[in-house]
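User: Sequence recovery, please. Input:
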């Protein structure tokens, strides 16, 4: 017995194969018909779109769902602009917590402060009334903690990255993070995951790529998230970032042994591995490389042995060079064609040059990138300029250059590093601070929709086409909505930049394989 069919009509469909289409019929989770209203077949149910825009739904190609859900319900520090404001926020939040609950906060970014020095562990301890406090910096590659949390894990003092100030990086950060998140119950984790996915659905996102691993989550958290995938929520495609862990990734239900398998850290914490020293850090400091080329090679060989896609987190040019050297080593064993067929991934790929981009083309590497990074931290006077200088800052996140030579792109948010905001990411890619790196709106939209599906080897997804999965979003386009986005023009010469205040489309409904997973106004 077939499921009831649904006819959506009276819309404006983004359907390149049939630009005049205003209606579509959904049957058994697929698009059974496309065309104009006047030719529409009968259906069990009819939905009047009222002129709304209908597009393929978004895919967010890099998220951390539990962290996102906890951030949505926890202490949001993204708006603080000084050490004093941070301490006030901690104090107010801690006052409302029961018992000895841990204060979990996220999003502070000292690079936006006038005085770029965060408070120390003692000050955080006083503000929280002696509670254990874990406050992740925007990049999630470092954190500010209280004396009470340091006391709860005394082994941290011998870990690389420890600093008595309470701002911890590298291995020390992983130690305190594990201690802090141990306080979160299984029920709280599930609630956070469901909240994050429901929020994604409300933004027109039908699928996410979860980047887990032993250093940033745990196996129970990872498998629990995969267990709620598609249960009235977006689908979750999991990546498990453990070196030589392809067999374990497959056992856990992951689609790939990669994601946040760290080849380096982050620019915000000055742990991204760069070839030229940071301008605002320790003299000569170039961050940290966590993998060797031989380890990268062996991981790719391990993935090949288990028939699994691999990948790495690599931000700095030195780290990306190491990763590509590992690819070259794997190619000697497997051949370039086999590597290309696997569509291995690199997450972030921020500091690139022509040689590195050529390597992505040669090995068919998917670049999983976050346009919001440039929007938030690129350009003059922002964090990237402080760390790298203006010239290197403007060369970062070269999405336009990569797209122009055929690098496969899959866009995401790295939430909660940046918010889930797919249309905002499309605008950011089209309005890169460096005009030479801008993409057309159409290309950016494709990277955030079909690009995400192709990154998990689902090549027939992400389009409105006859026989394709009925996965789409319905949008209101407010008066004055960003010119070019509602109709997905190839170019929009009137874009006013990443900070354009004109409104973006608003999601009215998200449909995943024929099932409505979000509807405006529903509880």
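Assistant: Recovered sequence (523 residues):
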């Amino acid at each position: 017995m077939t499921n009831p069919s649904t006819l959506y009509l009276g819309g404006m469909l983004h359907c390149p194969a049939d630009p005049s289409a205003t209606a579509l019929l959904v049957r058994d989770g697929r698009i059974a018909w496309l065309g104009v209203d006047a030719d529409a077949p009968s259906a069990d149910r009819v939905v009047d779109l009222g002129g709304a825009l209908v597009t393929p739904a978004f895919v967010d190609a890099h998220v951390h769902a539990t962290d996102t859900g906890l951030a949505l319900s926890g202490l949001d520090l993204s708006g603080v602009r000084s050490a004093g404001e941070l301490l006030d926020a901690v104090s107010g939040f801690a006052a409302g917590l029961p018992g000895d609950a841990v204060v979990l906060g996220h999003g502070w970014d000292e690079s936006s402060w006038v005085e770029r020095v965060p408070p120390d562990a003692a000050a955080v301890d006083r503000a929280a009334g002696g509670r254990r406090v874990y406050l992740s910096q925007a990049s999630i590659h470092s954190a500010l903690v209280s004396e009470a949390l340091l006391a709860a894990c005394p082994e941290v003092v011998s870990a690389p990255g420890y600093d008595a100030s309470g701002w911890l990086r590298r291995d020390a950060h992983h130690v305190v993070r594990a201690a802090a998140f141990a306080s979160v119950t299984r029920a709280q984790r599930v609630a956070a995951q469901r909240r994050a996915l429901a929020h994604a659905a409300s933004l027109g996102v039908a699928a996410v790529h979860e980047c887990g691993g032993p250093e940033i989550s745990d196996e129970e958290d990872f498998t629990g998230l995969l267990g709620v995938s598609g249960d009235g929520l977006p689908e979750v495609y999991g990546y498990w970032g453990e070196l030589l862990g392809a067999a374990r990734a497959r056992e856990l239900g992951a689609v790939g042994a990669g994601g946040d398998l760290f080849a380096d850290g982050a620019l915000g914490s000055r742990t991204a591995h760069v070839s030229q020293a940071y301008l605002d850090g320790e003299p000569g400091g170039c961050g940290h490389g966590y993998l060797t080329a031989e380890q990268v090679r062996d991981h790719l060989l391990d993935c090949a042995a288990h028939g699994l896609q691999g990948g790495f987190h690599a931000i700095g040019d030195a780290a990306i060079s190491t990763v590509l050297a590992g690819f070259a080593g794997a190619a000697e064993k497997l051949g370039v064609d086999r590597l290309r067929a696997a569509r291995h991934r690199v997450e972030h790929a921020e500091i690139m040059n022509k040689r590195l981009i050529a390597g992505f083309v040669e090995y068919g590497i998917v670049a999983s990138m976050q346009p919001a990074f440039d929007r938030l931290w690129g350009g003059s006077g922002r964090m990237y300029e402080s760390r790298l200088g203006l010239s290197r800052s403007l060369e970062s996140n070269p999405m336009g250059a990569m797209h122009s030579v055929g690098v496969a792109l899959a866009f995401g948010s790295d939430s909660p590093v940046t918010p889930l905001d797919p249309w905002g990411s499309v605008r950011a890619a089209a309005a890169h601070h460096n005009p030479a790196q801008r993409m057309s709106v159409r290309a950016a939209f494709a990277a955030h929709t079909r690009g995400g599906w192709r990154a998990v080897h689902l090549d027939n997804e992400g389009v409105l086409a006859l026989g394709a999965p009925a996965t789409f979003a319905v949008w209101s386009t407010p008066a004055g909505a960003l010119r070019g986005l509602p109709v997905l023009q190839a170019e929009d010469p009137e874009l006013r930049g990443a900070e354009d205040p004109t409104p973006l489309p608003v999601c009215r409904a998200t449909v995943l394989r024929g099932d409505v997973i979000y509807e405006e106004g529903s509880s």
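The radius of gyration is 23 Å.
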